[in-house]
Amino acid sequence: MRIASLTGRLYLVATPRPNQSNDEFVARVTAALDGGVDVLQLRCKEWEALPIIALAHRLREVTAAHSVPFWINDRVDIALATQADGVHLGQNDLPVEWSRRIAPNLAIGRSTHAPEQARPAVAEQPDYIATGPVYVTPTKPGRAAVGLEYVRWAAANVQIPWYAIGGIDASNIEEVVEAGASRVVVVRAILDAPDPAVAASQLRIALTS
Predict the structure, then answer these.
(1) Which pLDDT belongs to residue 137?
(2) Which of 30, 89, 90, 97 has the smallest set of CB atoms within 10 Å of its CB?
(3) Cβ neighbours of residue 77 under 8 Å, at least 6 residues apart?
(4) Neighbours of 35 (CB within 10 A)
(5) DSSP code per residue over 13-32
(6) Rounded to an integer, what distance in angstroms lies between the CA atom of residue 2 and that of residue 12?
(7) SS3 state of residue 111
(8) What DSSP state is assigned to residue 145?
(9) Using 50, 70 and 90 to split pLDDT, how confident is the model at 136?
(10) Where in the chain are the domains?
C-alpha cells in the first residue's frame, strides 16, 4: 500500500531501547501511532541488516494498518527489502541522486544542520528536509544545538516540507511552533514517556492548536 501523504506533522524516529524486547517496542510504537504520530522512521544505527529487516516487517504491518508512512534510516537497501515508503539520509549518507538511481520509487528525506546544508539539500529535491538539532539531544552526541534561529530561517526560506528536530518535547514544542515550525520530529519525548499514546496526543495538540 502506498501512502498518499508522506509528510505528516508529528514524526517519530523509533529505536528500541536497551534491554527492550521487540514485542514491547512494537507495542509502544503502536500506542504512539494511536496517539497521533503520523510519520514513523525506524532507526537502528548499530544493528546488522537482518535484525533490522525482521523488525521493519513488523512495523510495516502496523504503519499500514494506521495508514502512516514508514521510513528507514540511512539504509536504501533495507528500505527496498521491507517495502518502506521512504529512506532518511544523513549528511554523510548516499546523495539523493544516487539513492534515486538505486530505488526510484522510494521517497527521500535529508538531514541538515545549517542553511549552508539546507540550500544544496533542497536543490536535490528530496521529499523533505530535517532542520536541527534545535536543542541538545543525546540522540546526536557531540553535535551542538542550532537553536531556534535555524527554525526561523527555515520558515522564511524553505519551500518544501521541513521538520524541526532535536530535543523537542512537551516543555518546548510551543516555542518551536512559534518560531515557524509546523512539523516536528521527536524521539525520547514519546518513546521514553510513561504512556506513548498520551505523549503523542499532547504533542499533536500543541502542533495543531
Answers:
(1) 78
(2) 97
(3) 49, 102
(4) 21
(5) EE-PPTT--HHHHHHHHHHH
(6) 19
(7) strand
(8) P
(9) confident
(10) 10-208
Please state the φ and ψ torsions of residue 43, each to the nearest 5 degrees. -130, 110
Residues whose CB falls within 8 Å of the CB of residue 52, separated by 6 or more in sequence, listed in order? 42, 44, 72, 75, 78
* DSSP structure string for 35-60: HT--EEEE--TT--HHHHHHHHHHHH
User: What are 145-169's pLDDT values in tens digits?
Assistant: 999 999 999 999 999 999 999 999 9
Q: What single-letter DSSP state applies at residue 159? A: -
* Distance in angstroms (rounded) separating the CA atoms of residues 165 and 13: 10
Whole-number percent of the chain with pLDDT over 70? 96
Torsion of CA 39, 129, 139, 80, to 10 degrees: 60
Residues forming a β-bridge with 186: 12
CATH 3.20.20.70 fits 10-208, yes or no: yes
> Model confidence over 2-39: pLDDT tens digits?
555 688 999 999 999 988 999 999 999 999 999 999 99
Comparing CA positions, the residue from 58, 67, 48, 49 lying closest to residue 14 is 58
C-alpha cell at 137: 539531544
